[in-house]
Design brief:
14 helices, 0% strand, single chain
Length: 376
C-alpha cells in the first residue's frame, strides 16, 4: 500500500475540513444560528488530532493485519476489474461500522471509549473530528470478515475513507439533503447524538440507513420531541485528552463501590449506565462556559493549537524521514499540549505553569529534531 494509506492522509484533508467548517459557519449565520462554541470546538479538534497521532503507530499494525488476512485467509479471489469487491467494500464496510458502533453503545467499557464522540452539546462538522483515541483496539474485529471475502486492501481503504468523509458531512445543522430512504442525513444522525429517551441507541449507520431499518434501530425525529444534544453525564471538560478518560474514571469509581466481584465485572460489561444496587455514578460539575473563559486565554489557546497542529502535520507528512523515537517523542509532546491547552480552557489550577513547561519541552524537542536531521 502507498505511503498515504495510513492516518497520514489526514494531513492533506486539514485545509479542506477547515473550508467546510467555514462554509458551515457562514450558512449558519445567514440563517441566524450559532452552531459553534470556541472551547467545545477546540476540544473536538484536540480529540481528533490525538487520534490521528496515535494512528501513526496503531495504523500500520492494523493495515498489516488486513494485508495478512487478505493474503493468507481470503476465501475467494475476484477477477481483476470486477465490481464485486467494490460493492462488498462499501456494503460490508458500512455494516461493520454499524455493529462496531452499536457495540460501543451496548457495553459499558466500550461506551467509555466511544462516548467521547458524544460529549459535545453542539452538532456541527467539528464534532465529527471528536474521535475516541482507542476505538481501533476493538473496531478492527468488526471488519475482520472483509479481507476473507476477497476485498483487496486498496478497495477497503478507499471505501472506508469515503464512508468516513460522508459521516463527517452528516454532523451538521445546515447541510440538509434528502436521504432517498437509504442514506444517512444530518436530519437522521442528529437523533443519534441526542439524549432523549426515544432516541437512545438509534441510527448507528455511517452512510446507509439500511442496517438500522433491517435491525430495528432506525427512528425519525418527532417534532413534538426535539433532540436534546449530549449525554446524560453532561459535558465535563474542554480538554480533548482528559475527555478520553472521564467515563473510565466513573466506571472505576462505581466498580470500587460494588460489594461483589461479579458486580465489579458487570459494571464494565453491562449496558452503559448500569450500576449495582445502592451505587450511583459520581456527579461532576460541567465545563465552564465560553463566556467565562478570558479572551486572552482563548487567543492563546487558538495560537497554541495552531502551532501544535503545524508540528503534528510535519510529523505526519514527513513521518518516513523521522526515526521511531522522534515520532514517539513528537506524538507525546503533541498529546501533552492538547491536555495543557484544555487545562487552560477549563481553568484548572496550575494549568499555565504546566503549559509553560510543555512549550519549553516542545521547543527543545524541535531543536533536537532539526539538529539530528541536519547532522545525519
Amino acid at each position: 500500500m502507498s505511503r498515504l494509506e495510513t492516518n497520514g492522509y489526514y494531513a492533506l484533508g486539514v485545509p479542506f475540513y477547515l473550508a467546510v467548517i467555514a462554509l458551515e459557519i457562514a450558512l449558519a449565520r445567514r440563517k441566524g444560528k450559532r452552531v459553534y462554541g470556541f472551547a467545545d470546538t477546540l476540544s473536538s479538534f484536540s480529540a481528533g488530532l490525538g487520534e490521528i497521532l496515535l494512528g501513526l503507530f496503531l495504523g500500520p499494525l492494523l493495515l498489516g493485519l488486513y494485508d495478512f488476512a487478505y493474503d493468507r485467509l481470503a476465501l475467494v479471489r475476484w477477477p481483476e476489474g470486477s465490481i464485486v469487491p467494490w460493492i462488498l467494500a462499501f456494503a460490508l464496510g458500512d455494516l461493520g461500522y454499524y455493529w462496531y458502533h452499536r457495540a460501543g453503545h451496548s457495553v459499558a467499557a466500550l461506551w467509555a471509549i466511544h462516548g467521547v464522540h458524544h460529549q459535545s452539546e453542539h452538532f456541527n462538522v467539528s464534532v465529527a473530528t471528536r474521535h475516541p483515541w482507542f476505538s481501533d483496539t476493538y473496531a478492527f474485529l468488526f471488519y475482520a470478515p472483509i479481507p476473507m471475502l476477497g476485498v483487496p486492501p486498496v478497495h477497503f481503504f478507499v471505501a472506508i475513507s469515503i464512508i468516513s468523509f460522508y459521516a463527517l458531512t452528516v454532523h451538521s445543522q445546515v447541510f440538509h439533503r434528502p436521504g432517498l430512504w437509504f442514506l444517512v442525513t444530518p436530519a437522521t444522525h442528529i437523533v443519534h447524538h441526542s439524549r432523549n429517551r426515544r432516541y437512545l441507541n438509534k441510527n448507528f449507520g455511517a452512510m446507509f440507513t439500511v442496517w438500522d431499518r433491517l435491525f430495528g434501530t432506525h427512528v425519525e425525529v418527532d417534532p413534538a420531541d426535539p433532540p436534546v444534544l449530549g449525554t446524560p453525564f453532561g459535558y465535563q471538560t474542554h480538554d480533548g485528552a482528559r475527555a478520553q478518560w472521564v467515563f473510565f474514571r466513573d466506571l472505576i469509581a462505581v466498580a470500587r463501590q460494588a460489594k461483589t466481584l461479579g458486580d465489579k465485572v458487570r459494571t464494565f460489561v453491562r449496558h452503559p449506565g448500569w450500576t449495582p444496587e445502592g451505587v450511583a455514578f459520581p456527579r461532576h460539575a460541567p465545563a465552564r462556559p465560553d463566556a467565562a473563559i478570558p479572551l486572552r486565554t482563548k487567543v492563546y489557546a487558538a495560537l497554541a493549537f495552531g502551532g501544535t497542529l503545524a508540528f503534528a502535520l510535519h510529523l505526519l507528512w514527513l513521518r518516513d524521514r523521522h526515526p521511531v523515537w522522534q515520532l514517539a517523542a513528537g506524538a507525546l509532546v503533541v498529546l501533552w499540549g492538547l491536555s495543557t491547552m484544555g487545562g487552560l480552557l477549563d481553568g484548572r489550577d496550575g494549568a499555565a505553569r504546566r503549559e509553560g513547561v510543555r512549550v519549553a519541552a516542545t521547543a527543545a524537542l524541535g531543536l533536537w529534531i532539526v539538529f539530528s536531521s541536519s547532522a545525519s
